[in-house]
């Protein structure tokens, strides 16, 4: 550990180290953390920096929306760069995954953080850090302004990701002493991410983070003096280039009449919005101080409730304006009228004495009623506008996105349920939390818990097939150093109460139907004269060395032995069974020999 004797950006590295080490000790002992809405405590107890970001975000009422439950509305084509018209399109589901377009989905001016189930846990605090820093915009902004503002807004979230969050963060044995693994995430690091007060490199990460911020701000200052982006590269990170890309992707949107109308009605100076680049730089430094220092940064809202209503109102106001920009005059007027009404909430978010939780809902309801009163098929439904991936008081969202996502990855159960499917998805959406797992996996686990038995087995099987690794495991062949074995990467041991492969074939052939009982439970009825009988089975699912899907029926004893291997053990299996599973590529050595002698 090398403690710097000097201060960086006015902050003493040794003092931060001591304070964060004490915090890491508390976190390792199970101390509670502040958890903003839309995530789990484990994502804030992972490191002192993560815990601090959670505290700061909660003070201002910052929270997450669920990316898969948010209806992503298409943008006006004129806002997309000429060579990239696809940036205006809403993302489309692909095999149960909703991709996030880098410059369409993410906006610095959206204060609500995105929770994407396929992102790493680091994203929770990274996105909230963006909310804390905010953004800068001005009516006469040039492309250079937008690029520089985008760069300034990225500095601290990037420093948090690569440096501050790594201080006192436990990593697996393969990556001990290292930082982030960049674009190749390590599942073992993710699984064991937690506070480690003994990590010796913590002070180095703290100092590197401060120096990265310092160097970036110096490069921004030089850029502004010269009137051109000046790079400061670290590893593969080049925020100057990122800022230019962001400016190009968003310049038309940020310069549009719709955004000018939005800014006039919804932006609050020093309340998420900085009026110029100097103010944004000052905000970056203030949040840095709040992160590494004993005192909090300046609050953006009087209370968390005031902040939450502001971020929500801004989000809904922007959706109303953006979704009507390309419409006929009546449609545009409807969007502007809704924005005008919603903007009446903003003053209530500025004063601590304002009872925002009581005053805001009637204004929101008024905007909703006025929207519904407009008779135009070109106007998006208010239900679509309100389907934002978080709770809007008094209004239920549609489940269009989840229905579309499940349609593409669980076709057997989808067809089996038929007209019952939408109601089941509605119930699933109410229970579906902010979990970092594939949609099919979450759905399968929910159906199995809600409807144990044959339907639950089918849902579990289908979710496993939907998430089967696309390629064979990249294991090195060769003689084993000892008798320890582990399951090859991507291999799964699955247990069922029925012969699930037979059930799946019958369901696909139309031989089964689902019916709902009076108590709400679902069961199967057969049209093919075969009974639906319980028959406990176990299946091994994965891919063989050639990449072909591998489905093996195994007996319960073998399933127990394989499940017990963990990261490696001597399998308790008969010799012939062990040999067969090794030949199939199901089992691989934990360690390999260097020679044949």
Overview of this structure, please?
With 597 residues, the protein is mainly α. It has four domains: 7-258 and 269-298, no CATH class; 301-395, no CATH class; 399-467 and 499-535, no CATH class; 469-497 and 537-597, Outer Surface Protein A, domain 3, CATH 3.90.930. Helices cover 45% and strands 9% of the residues. The protein has 21 helices and 15 strands. It has helices at 13-28, 48-59, 122-133, 143-162, 187-192, 202-226, 239-254, 257-266, 277-292, 304-322, 329-343, 356-373, 382-385, 400-407, 411-417, 421-431, 439-450, 454-466, 500-508, 556-563, 575-583; strands at residues 7-8, 11-12, 64-66, 113-115, 135-136, 233-234, 237-238, 273-274, 485-487, 492-496, 512-516, 522-526, 537-543, 549-554, 587-589. The strands form seven sheets. The chain has a three-stranded antiparallel sheet with strand order 10-13-14. The chain has a two-stranded antiparallel sheet with strand order 1-2. Helix 1 (13-28) crosses helix 6, helix 8 (257-266) runs parallel beside helix 11 (329-343) and helix 17 runs antiparallel to helix 18 (454-466). It starts with 6 loop residues before the first strand and ends in an 8-residue tail after the last strand. The model has no long low-confidence stretch (mean pLDDT 93).
């Amino acid at each position: 550990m090398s403690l710097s004797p000097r201060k960086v950006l006015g902050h003493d590295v040794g003092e931060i180290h001591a304070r964060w080490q004490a915090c890491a000790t508390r976190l390792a002992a199970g101390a509670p953390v502040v958890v903003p809405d839309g995530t789990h405590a484990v994502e804030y107890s992972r490191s002192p920096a993560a815990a601090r970001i959670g505290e700061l975000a909660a003070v201002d009422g910052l929270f997450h929306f669920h990316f898969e439950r948010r209806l992503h509305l298409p943008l006006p084509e004129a806002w997309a760069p000429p060579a990239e018209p696809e940036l205006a399109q809403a993302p489309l589901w692909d095999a149960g995954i909703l991709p996030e377009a880098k410059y369409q989905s993410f906006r610095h001016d959206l204060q609500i953080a995105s929770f994407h189930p396929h992102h790493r846990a680091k994203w929770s605090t990274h996105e909230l850090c963006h909310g804390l820093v905010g953004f800068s915009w001005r009516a006469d902004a040039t492309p250079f302004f937008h690029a520089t503002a985008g760069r300034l807004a990225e500095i601290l979230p990037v420093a948090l990701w690569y440096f501050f969050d790594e201080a006192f963060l436990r990593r697996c044995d393969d990556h001990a002493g290292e930082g982030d693994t960049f674009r190749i995430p390590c599942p073992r690091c993710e699984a064991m991410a937690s506070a480690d007060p003994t990590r010796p490199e913590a002070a180095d990460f703290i100092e590197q983070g401060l120096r990265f911020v310092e160097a970036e701000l110096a490069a921004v200052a030089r850029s502004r003096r010269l009137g051109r982006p000046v790079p400061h590269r670290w590893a593969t990170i080049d925020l100057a280039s990122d800022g230019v890309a962001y400016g190009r992707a968003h310049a038309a949107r940020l310069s549009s009449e719709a955004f000018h109308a939005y800014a006039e009605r919804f932006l609050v100076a020093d309340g998420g919005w900085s009026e110029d680049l100097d103010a944004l730089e000052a905000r970056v430094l203030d949040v840095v101080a709040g992160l590494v220092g004993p005192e909090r940064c300046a609050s953006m809202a009087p209370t968390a409730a005031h902040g939450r209503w502001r971020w929500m109102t801004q989000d809904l106001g922007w959706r109303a304006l953006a979704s009507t920009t390309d419409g006929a005059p009546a449609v545009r007027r409807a969007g502007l009228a809704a924005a005008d009404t919603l903007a009446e909430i903003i003053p209530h978010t500025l004063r601590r004495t304002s009872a925002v939780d009581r005053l805001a809902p009637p204004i929101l309801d008024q905007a909703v009623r006025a929207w519904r009163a407009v008779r135009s098929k070109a106007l998006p439904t208010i239900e679509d506008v309100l389907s934002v991936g978080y709770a809007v008081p008094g209004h239920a969202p549609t489940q269009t996105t989840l229905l579309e996502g499940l349609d593409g990855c669980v076709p057997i159960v989808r067809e089996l349920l038929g007209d019952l499917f939408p109601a089941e998805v509605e119930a699933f959406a109410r229970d579906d939390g902010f979990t970092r797992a594939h949609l099919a996996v979450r759905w399968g686990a929910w159906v199995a818990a809600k409807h144990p038995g044959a339907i639950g087995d089918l849902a579990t099987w289908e979710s496993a097939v939907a998430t089967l690794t696309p390629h064979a495991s990249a294991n090195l062949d060769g003689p084993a150093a000892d008798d320890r074995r582990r399951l090859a990467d991507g291999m799964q041991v699955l247990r069922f109460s029925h012969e699930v492969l037979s059930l799946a074939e019958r369901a696909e052939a139309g031989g089964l139907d689902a019916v709902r009982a009076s108590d709400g439970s679902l069961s199967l009825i057969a049209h093919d004269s075969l009974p639906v009988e319980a028959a406990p089975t176990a299946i091994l699912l994965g891919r063989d060395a050639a990449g072909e899907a591998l489905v093996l029926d195994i007996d319960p004893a073998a399933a127990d032995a394989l499940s017990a291997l963990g990261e490696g053990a001597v399998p308790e299996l008969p010799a012939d069974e062990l040999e067969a599973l090794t030949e199939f590529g199901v089992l691989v050595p934990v360690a390999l020999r260097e020679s044949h002698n």
